[in-house]
Model the fold of this input.
Amino acid sequence: MSNTNMNAQRSEVARLLDQIREEYEAAMRGLSGLSHGTSRHSFITTRMENMGKLQTQLDELIGDNAIALVVTCLENCTDYSASTQANGV
Done:
């Protein structure tokens, strides 16, 4: 693979990870937002479904290492760190 192709792939991986992080953070904000009931559930479900689609794209690009990158990405999210510490995880 040429350097140009490798750089393009790295950029795509970074873009997908950024989008995954943004979807996760939006879902976490939805948990503490003002809306209630079905609309809140629908919002969070959509964010999680989007994360799944993005993770699938990432998996197609880099294979089995994708899930490890997603975990690392989410562990570095402020909302993830605060929620897991609050829950004793």
User: Anything to note?
Assistant: Residues 24 and 48 are 7 Å apart (CA to CA).
